[in-house]
Amino acid sequence: MTEKKSKKWVVAAVVFIVLAVLPLMLPLFRVSLIGKYMCFAIVALGLDMIWGYTGIMSLGHGVYFGLGAYAMAMYLKLEASGGGLPDFMTWSGFDALPFWWVPFGNAGFAFAMIVVVPVVVAVVIGLLTFLNRIRGVYFTILSQALAMILSVLLIGCQQYTGGSNGLTDFDTLLGLPLDAPATKLALYYVTLAVLVALFALCSVLVGRRVGKILIAIRDSENRVRFTGYNTALFKVFVYALSAAIAGIAGALYVSQVGIITPSDVAVSPSIEMIIWVAIGGKGTLAGPVLGALLVNGVKTFASEGFPDLWSYGLGLVCVLVILFLPGGLMSIKDVPARFRAWRSRRAGAENIPELEQEGGRA
């Protein structure tokens, strides 16, 4: 195992152990908050696969997070309605459920759609873009527009989606009361188990041949294409995998937070997801998980004490990390070496005029 891989596993193990013991020391309210942060860490993990390892920056990953979240919320809403119409449909004058809502009353179908719907959308978008060699900033803008379109669509279809109020007022999950402390604790550990499992899956993929090809695509896609690989299919695969991971995160998020709205799938949350990865350290897997947990933890405490200033602080931290820690928090141990290298370059630059003067006198 290389030093880089060893460091990744050590950081991940420490983070997972701390997360496992935190419920023993914190009140239930804080435990629920950390459970939400773990959902964001799952999203960051998927984003790292497409951005950190493949070089595809997506500013619209809130779309897949939202699709998974709405799939779970539809099931929870139907369960809370006891087989009847959701309240917002009654207000809209519906007499019966829309046909495409009906299957979501089945838990198995709803759980499957949490993954299937984001993957199908990601495959369609991926095929349309990557086969046509749309990449770089053009794909980034396209993904951002996708998030904007979905949020507007969800608001406009109020009679089907709850509009700007979203879906909320959930009571039970598989018959278990969501407000019960035991259920909240169980959801916390389920989220942790999913995070660990997906981290292990991504680590295995990165260590195998497919991971090496993804890294090669990131570094020089044209060279990989000229060696005979269909880079578009690899990009579609990793994009769909990332969408599936985001959908799972969205479903876990709704179960713990109890609400999903169009604002959660808009452009701003998608940009925040990128910030988590950048601060943690893209291309490391452990870094984005750590970044999502730390950034959201600091965000909560800062907003409690300084509600008008925390967003500026987050932006400042992001700028400082990009300028002085381009490898994110995972590269913080390299700071002394980078500082020594900078001092050496500066000293060399200062000596150049002296050498030129000596050469002129000679």
What's the short version?
This protein has about 350 residues and is mostly helical.
Q: How much helicity do the residues have?
A: over 70%
The H/E string reads HHHHHHHEEEHHHEHHHH
How many E-type strands? 4
Write down the oligomeric state: single chain
The largest pleated sheet is described as:
2 strands, antiparallel
Strand content: under 5%
Strand order of the largest sheet: 1-4
Distance between the first and last residues' Cα: 55 Å
Tell me, what's the shape? Answer: globular
Name the poorly predicted regions.
none
Gyration radius, rounded: 23 Å
Number of helices: 14
Structural class comes to mainly alpha
Description:
The chain starts with a helix and ends with a helix. It is mostly helical. Strands 1-4 form a two-stranded antiparallel ribbon. Strands 2-3 form a two-stranded antiparallel ribbon. The protein has 14 helices and four strands. Helix content is 73%, strand content 2%. The protein has helices at 3-21, 28-52, 62-80, 87-91, 107-130, 137-156, 158-161, 181-207, 209-226, 231-257, 267-280, 286-305, 310-324, 335-361; strands spanning 167-168, 172-173, 176-177, 259-260. α2 (28-52) runs antiparallel to α10 (231-257) and α2 packs across α11 (267-280). The protein is globular and about 80 Å long.
Feature tags:
362 residues; mainly alpha; two-stranded antiparallel ribbon; 73% helix
Helices and strands in order, then pairings?
Blueprint (H helix, E strand, L loop, with lengths): L2 H19 L6 H25 L9 H19 L6 H5 L15 H24 L6 H20 L1 H4 L5 E2 L3 E2 L2 E2 L3 H27 L1 H18 L4 H27 L1 E2 L6 H14 L5 H20 L4 H15 L10 H27 L1
Antiparallel strand pairs: 1-4, 2-3
Helix pairs in contact: 1-12, 2-8, 2-10, 2-11, 2-12, 3-5, 3-10, 5-10, 8-9, 8-10, 9-10, 11-12
